[in-house]
Design brief:
The protein is α+β, with helices and mostly antiparallel strands. The chain is built from 4 helices and 7 strands. The strands form 2 sheets. The protein has a 4-stranded antiparallel sheet. A 3-stranded antiparallel sheet has the order 5-6-7.
């Protein structure tokens, strides 16, 4: 009977220790996310205009992305998240050490940011997904020759330089308008 009682108390104690460690970890995660949100909160209403989100020093706007004084267009931008877990166990964290990296790449530039969210990469992944969705929704700038007006101007310029005759110019204009030349 005494052994059974001791075994019950021991198992309850172990469950309580595990629950306490889990709760401490959740509290640390919540604290880190709170401080991160507090730091990343935009300051001043003047800067809110087209601001979509901020994370770890990176500001995402409707048409551009900024980090410090560096600013780039969202055309061709992609974001990804990677994690690296070391075998080192940190007793204060209650587990293995995990580094979360946010990588944002453009045509000729790249940023790799070690994030603050060491307990969960959820917020980092949601920011990366937001960057990717905004980057795909950015309208690509159209060249002057892609629009009908730009093509008319180009034809007119070619006629003025003598590359096209008046007859060739008329044929090309009628083709652009979609009406056959008589």
């Amino acid at each position: 009977m005494f052994n059974q009682f001791r075994q019950d108390i021991t198992s309850r104690g172990q469950r309580m220790q595990e629950e306490l460690a889990r709760t401490k970890s959740q509290l640390r995660q919540a604290r880190d996310e709170y401080y991160l949100a507090k730091v990343e909160r935009p300051r001043g209403a003047a800067r809110l205009g087209d601001l979509v989100a901020r994370y770890s020093g990176v500001s995402l706007y409707e048409d551009r992305i900024e980090r410090g004084r560096e600013s780039h267009s969202l055309v061709g931008v992609s974001a990804s998240v990677s994690e690296s877990t070391t075998d080192e166990v940190n007793p204060s964290d209650g587990g293995a050490v995990r580094d979360v990296f946010l990588t944002i790449k453009g045509a000729d530039w790249s940023w790799t940011i070690k994030t603050v969210a060491v307990f969960s990469s959820r917020k980092t992944r949601s920011f990366a997904a937001l960057v990717n969705s905004r980057a795909t929704n950015v309208p690509t700038p159209r060249s002057a020759t892609a629009t009908a007006t730009g093509q008319f101007r180009l034809l007119d310029e070619l006629r003025d330089r003598g590359v096209l005759t008046d007859e060739e110019f008329g044929t090309a204009v009628s083709r652009l308008r979609g009406t056959p030349k008589e």
